[in-house]
Amino acid sequence: MYAVRLPGDADEAAFRAAARRCLALRLAPADVAFAEESAPSLFPPLPDTDATAPAVSAPRAYQALLADAIGHSAADRFDLLYDLLWRIVSGARDVVANPADPVVARLSDYARAVRRDIHKMHAFLRFRPREVDGRPVHVAWYEPQHRVLKQAAPFFVDRFAAMDWLIATPAGTAAWSEGRLAFGPPAARPADADDPVLDALWTTYYRTTFDPARLRLAAMRREMPRNFWANMPETREIPAMVATAGRRVAAMKARAPDVPPGFADKIAARASPGPDGPATPLEALRGEVAACRRCPLHGPATQAVCGEGPRDAAIVFVDEQPGDQEDLSGRPFVGPAGQLFDRALAEAGIDRGGVYLTNAVKHFKYEPRGRRRIHGKPDPGEVRACRWWLDRELAALSPRLVVALGGTAAGALAGRAVSVLRERGPARFGARAGFVTVHPSFLLRLPEAARQADEYRAFVADLQAVKAAARAAAA
Amino acid sequence: MPLDLVQKLEILADAAKYDASCASSGGPKRDSRRGGLGSTTGAGICHAHTPDGRCVSLLKILLTNFCRYDCAYCVSRRSSNVARAKFSVDEVVRLTLDLYRRNCIEGLFLSSGIALSEDDTMAELVRVAKTLRTVHGFRGYIHLKTIPGAAEALVAEAGRWADRLSLNVELPSERSLATYAPEKDATSIRKGLATTRSLIDGAADARRRGSGTIGRAPPPRFAPAGQSTQMIVGADGADDLAVLSASTSLYASYGLRRVYYAAFSPTGHPSAGLPQAATPLLREHRLYQADWLMRFYGFALPDLAAAAPSGMLDTAIDPKLAWALAHRDRFPVDVNTAPREMLLRVPGLGPRAVDRVLAARRRSGALRLVDLARLSGGLKRTRPFVVTADWRPTAMLDDAHLRRRLAPAPVQLSLF
């Protein structure tokens, strides 16, 4: 049995060198005890040897574990790291990937504790501006639980590269000056310089942002253990905050409702002005549709989507309902199906700006699925409820031809169930000349490209027929 | 006598503290090695914790608490007798930089009462963020509130300087909003969320398309840490399922990173018609657990409805355990063979524990109970629901008292 003595702040390189000598001597973990130099040991040091260590290439997972766990303050960290290395060298290269292995589990806990300690240092360290040799320097005193200064320092370089700063800890210092990071030996704790920002503004903010009605001391201590408090000026407020919380809550409960202050009426009168001038019938309708509560679809939707287009449009296209994009933007025919429709319209020689586009149902019906919305088909009741708006919309326009895109729109216009397959083509919707064709999203859903192309051509042909029918109706 | 900076901070931090969000995560990585001040790591840092158990990550303040609206639940409503103040743009900028250099904060979370118009308010918020970024080279985190009804161009500029934008829906239903905030319009709030989402998507698309172009700067980012919202819980009569159903729609519709649930808390400036007592924090906690189950554990709203037949989640046990107790026929689950989705349904196993179980069972053969203990946080809740190489729960699952045995002993949540 031999003893390997390492300095308390031994880094990866120091450990690796020692471990390599042990491997050269073929020492199993049971034959060697690692210890910090400061701890007493009964065992003799490693004998000198000319033997060379086997070529060790530890897997990356081991290197990562070593890099973190080596900083832990537990005395057995070196032994555990050597135990793992021995097994890797003996052929179990995959052992680090097994979280159920007791040594791996223990070292992972150490590594996690070290990473947490680094994180807490990034969080809880406070700089106080001082003047050192006539230069402004931000100075901090901090006491980490493990040896994390070297790993924690680059964060402060990233964040405060333009400032000179000095972090002092019981185990050493880190200084950033003129673009250079230097580590030094431990220094005495610097006296706290007065700083109105930390001592007045920051403590005031900390005290104020606390809600006395939600006292949860255990949760605070779990995330901000007491041993960190000494170097955080705001924590001096905690005893008084806790002591008065009960009284503050009782006083809040006892208060009568507020009497409004004098300016309340004055400020309320600054309400936004209403729209200018009288609204056209279509604009008035738009306002009414926005407030529609005739069926439950308004609940989860963003907004009602009204039709768009000139009032004297010769052709009105009626789609089923707004989709995801239409619901977000408040405009009809802007989603993927709308874009396909635009293309087909252009190919058929119909000017999009000259037609009126609307939906049979004005609110988007959907099923929430994670971060997406799945289109839901409106039921007959919803279509009937919304027909009220469609009728008024058509009455406010005077189209020569009304085109139903898909079965739902055709059903709403005809007032009965319509099969697009059977009734595709010229139709009558009450007294109005109409036309029935497919919904553009039907084309998007077709699985085969060949069929898609065929159906798209048929759709464009329908639109050409629509154009001709509208022209004939005008003559 | 004009207020000094400390007094203003006291008033405007107090008015801002009812916003639960303090996240500084989700942004891009930035540092100051090539100039400027500050960095973001993407992960967020809590720089302190207050005795209410919440973290302090950002300087969370209002620009002003003068407001022309009269929302009953809000301490800054115009009929409240609270002290009023207004920061200047420069005061907020200086305060942010001073606290940032001392490593007290990750950045700024700025909101505001609406003293003049929506556009004026939004423009002031934008001015603060723009000054921090362009005049001072600030690389820290900025979270801005968007004001419903503000012009889209202003929101678009806000997203250019801010990491995150948020807009609170405030209450789970339109009817509650009409009751407690009669001048607010649920549609305009939702339109605000929709606008931000469209701007986020549009910027992401433009960057994707522009990424292949050589020699041209990529299009600017827009709110790279996304948007979030908040609902107050317990001010109106909505039950937990109504709250969760509302948040399900919100997540699906607006690409939200988070929906925050804020237990209603008295402000010291009560308005008639609202409860005087605070909503139990446990209710808020259970809602967050349920929210987590839907986002990371593959639970859907109907699963939670099954776990909460009364419409309210069980306060004595967590919603996952409640679901498991209501679906005992789905258990026990064999940890050595079950798929990931089913392991995630086992009480006491979180996504990280499940990943470790899956990794361990590929490498070390049949897992025993002691292995499972090492891989998860403990066995108390897990044991009755799993099978391992050396363990079978036998009659435990049928035990009518299982719920009582697994529920933690009732304790006072807050310690005075």
From TrEMBL, chain A:
The keyword Transcription does not apply. Residues 306-464 form the Uracil-DNA glycosylase-like domain. Keywords: 4Fe-4S, DNA damage, DNA repair, Hydrolase, Iron, Iron-sulfur, Metal-binding. InterPro entries: DNA_repair_put, DUF4130, UDG_Type-4/5, Ura-DNA_glyco_family4, Uracil-DNA_glycosylase-like, Uracil-DNA_glycosylase-like_sf. CDD domains: UDG-F4_TTUDGA_SPO1dp_like. It holds the Pfam family UDG. Belongs to the uracil-DNA glycosylase (UDG) superfamily. Type 4 (UDGa) family. This is Type-4 uracil-DNA glycosylase. It comes from Rhodoplanes tepidamans (Rhodoplanes cryptolactis).
From TrEMBL, chain B:
Pfam families: Radical_SAM (PF04055). The keyword Cytoplasm does not apply. Keywords: Iron, Iron-sulfur, Metal-binding, S-adenosyl-L-methionine. Residues 62-186 form the Radical SAM core domain. It comes from the Bacteria. Transmembrane segments: none annotated. Its cofactor is [4Fe-4S] cluster. The keyword ATP-binding does not apply. This is DNA modification/repair radical SAM protein. The lineage of its organism: Bacteria, Pseudomonadati, Pseudomonadota, Alphaproteobacteria, Hyphomicrobiales.
